[in-house]
Design a protein that fits this description.
By secondary structure, the chain is mostly beta strands. Helices cover 4% and strands 63% of the residues. It has a 14-stranded antiparallel β-barrel with strand order 1-2-3-4-5-6-7-8-9-10-11-12-14-16.
Length: 367
């Protein structure tokens, strides 16, 4: 509650910025969300294999995460009418040892603790090229994880500086977009900057290089009427990474790699009854690094209920959106490099992680 009150106070404190004269920098929107996530998986004695609906049993608790996100969008009049987009994400994690019947982290039932920051800041501007208008971004993404224990995340840091345009078009209510970015990156420790190798895989424990991001996306509504709404989204992301460094394992220069991330999802929302609504979401994500053997495929079905309301303020509309979600179905198939060996040493296997989420989103859309 203290966090929520703090955000509301912040929203009110930026009112003067939002109401500033149009010749001054102005706030376009600001948002905050806080969410608790508790994972569950099958860990029954020595036969635990990560499959099946685990249920809300204490012995099946997996990772617990507290995620907080704060972001916004500014119009910088004095800086050539540029836009400034920013978002800061912090995860506080507690990871219960998957092997309660063994001592792989030193003691049965060990709890690993770690935190991760993922921050993104970008200047942007619309540029017209003939009949096309594109949004050009110049941004910086920073990721950092610190903690202790076997499962304390990928400890280390990474930086990505990117520049490039996004083209978008609306065709009969369906959105199509294409994003292309040139990237400079560096990585150290357990971070990868979406490279196939972590910083620790290189002889110096860190590395830098160049890359290219290409993302294609299509989304829209299938229907929106008295029985609710059904949305869909398809995202095809490709990230080329060429790191300049020698690998510990081979002593040779690392090969360039393309990270593929293909996501297809659809979400049904019920009609709103006094602000309350229900939802069902189905999603499939397939990931692969082209320079190594293996892949991961994650299929999930979520159910949830939420409440959404808007409050009119002199500066704009304040939106409050509490929500509870549960992942009732999850099948994650991993092969090759994606196999972390937690449940089996076979090259390919499928596991399941159910998850309960509860959180609140607060946003201010300035008039």
């Amino acid at each position: 509650m203290k966090k929520v009150l703090g955000v509301l106070a912040l929203v009110l404190s930026v009112s003067s910025l939002a109401l500033a004269d149009q010749d001054q920098d102005t706030l376009k929107e600001i948002h905050f969300s806080t969410e608790f996530r508790q994972g569950y998986t099958d860990k029954k004695a020595n036969t635990g294999n990560g499959l099946g609906i685990a249920g809300f049993k204490g012995e099946n608790k997996d990772r617990a995460r507290w995620r907080n996100i704060f972001g916004g969008d500014l119009h910088l009049v004095d800086e050539g009418n540029l836009g400034l987009r920013f978002e800061f994400q912090n995860d506080q994690d507690r990871y219960k040892n998957d092997f309660d019947y063994e001592t792989k982290t030193g003691t049965k039932g060990t709890i690993d603790k770690y935190q991760t920051w993922e921050n993104d800041i970008a200047l942007y501007r619309d540029i017209t090229l003939g009949s096309w208008t594109s949004k050009w971004d110049l941004g910086w993404t920073y990721k950092s994880t610190s903690g202790r224990g076997r499962y304390s995340g990928h400890r280390g840091t990474s930086n990505e500086i990117y520049v490039g345009p996004t083209f978008a078009i609306n065709f009969f209510g369906q959105e199509f977009s294409a994003k292309t970015q040139a990237v400079y990156f560096d990585q150290s420790g357990g971070k990868s900057a979406d490279n196939v190798w972590e910083g620790n895989d290189f002889q110096k424990g860190k590395v830098s290089g160049w890359g290219l991001n290409v993302a294609l996306e299509n989304g829209g509504k299938i229907f929106d009427n008295g029985i609710g709404s059904l949305d869909y989204n398809v995202g095809l992301t490709h990230k080329l990474r060429d790191a300049k460094g020698k690998l510990v394992a081979t002593g040779k220069d690392a090969k360039s790699n393309v990270y593929l991330d293909y996501v297809v999802e659809t979400t049904y929302k019920t009609p709103s009854f006094g602000g309350f609504y229900g939802l069902i979401n189905a999603e499939n994500e397939w990931e692969k690094h082209t320079s190594r053997h293996g892949f991961s495929n994650n299929f999930s079905v979520w159910t949830g209920i939420g409440y959404k309301t808007g409050i009119d303020l002199p500066v704009g509309t304040l939106t409050l959106n509490p929500m509870v979600k549960y992942r009732v179905v999850n099948k994650e198939t991993v092969k090759g490099y994606a196999n972390d060996g937690r449940y089996t040493s076979s090259d390919k296997y499928t596991r399941e992680y159910n998850e309960l989420r509860a959180g609140l989103k607060v946003g201010l859309e300035v008039k």
